[in-house]
Amino acid sequence: MKDLKLFTIQYVGLKEGEHNFEYQIDKSFFDYFEFDDFNDVAIHVNLVFVKKATFMQLHFKVDGKVNVNCDLTNEPYDEPIHGEFELIVNFGQEYNDENEEILVLPYGEYELNVAQYIYELIILSVPNKRVHPGVEDGTLESEILNKLEELSLGSKKEQEDNDKLQTDPRWDSLRKLLTDK
What is the pLDDT of residues 46-101, one digit of tens each? Predict the structure, then answer.
């Protein structure tokens, strides 16, 4: 955890006002959190740290890409990542992080490690369903896609046509009543 010290901000020595911190995140960052869903990571984090007399305001912004496997085909692709997060840091008698947007630090603290907040922002910026762009536009050729197409039930139009052919003939005379008006 020695390298996570890069994400520690010693706010006691900072003057009041706005301070900018920038971080480059790669795959090794996620190894500290034992998270291995990403094949590769290239993310830029911009942190605007505003120190005021009684509190601090942190604005995180992440931009970049992560290489993940598609949920349908298991093909790797680059997923663009964009996200923002606001955090207010107040001071109190004891540490309290129950509210996700407000952090309360004890009065004696002098530093804040932001690695966990960056980690969570990146993870939450990745879509729940990861679909390769080639699947969406139909340009990806894959054995898995071919097998899925082969095993699918067919198009909705084919299913509707089959449903019409398989209707119970006793209902046909009742349907005529609806159209004879």
Answer: 999 999 988 999 999 999 999 999 888 888 889 999 999 999 999 989 988 888 88
Q: How far is CA 145 from the centre of its chain?
A: 25
Question: By the 8 A CB rule, do 38 and 65 touch?
Answer: no
Alpha-carbon torsion (140, 144, 146, 148), positive or negative:
negative
CA distance 61 to 122: 10
Contacts 24+ apart (CB under 8 A), 151-159: none
Give just the sign of the alpha carbon dihedral 122, 125, 131, 133: negative
User: What span, in angstroms and rounded, lies between the C-alpha atoms of 43 and 66?
Assistant: 8
Question: What is the per-residue pLDDT for 156?
Answer: 52
- Residue linked to tokens 């598609």: 70
According to DSSP, residue 3 is labeled G
**Span 106-132, average pLDDT:** 90
The four Cα atoms 95, 99, 100, 101 give a dihedral, to 10 degrees, of -90
Is residue 132 packed enough to be buried (19+ CB in 10 Å), middle (13-18) or exposed (0-12)?
Answer: buried
Q: Mark residue 119 as left, alpha or beta (left: phi above 0; alpha: psi -120 to 50; beta: remaining).
A: alpha
The residue whose two tokens read 């291995």 is: 36
Model confidence, pTM: 0.76
